[in-house]
Design brief:
It contains 1 helix and 2 strands; from the N terminus they run H-E-E.
Length: 59
C-alpha cells in the first residue's frame, strides 16, 4: 500500500517537472516573465498584462 502511494507521488512530481522544463510558465518569453502577484492571485507580467494561467500565485 505504501509503495503504491509513494509511486503515485513520484510520478506526479515528475510530470510537474516536465511541464516546468518545457517552459509552461505564466508570463513566459514575449511577456518578459512574472513581475508580481495581483490581489486576486493572478500573475502580473513585466509587459503589464495579466497572465491567463489557471494557476494561482501567492504574495
Amino acid at each position: 500500500m505504501f509503495k503504491n502511494i509513494f509511486l503515485i507521488v513520484c510520478l506526479s512530481l515528475s510530470f510537474v517537472s516536465v511541464a516546468e522544463a518545457r517552459g509552461n510558465k505564466p508570463c513566459s518569453k514575449s511577456k518578459g516573465g512574472v513581475k508580481a502577484c495581483t490581489a486576486e492571485g493572478k500573475f502580473l507580467c513585466n509587459d503589464g498584462s495579466v497572465s491567463a494561467s489557471k494557476r494561482k500565485c501567492t504574495r
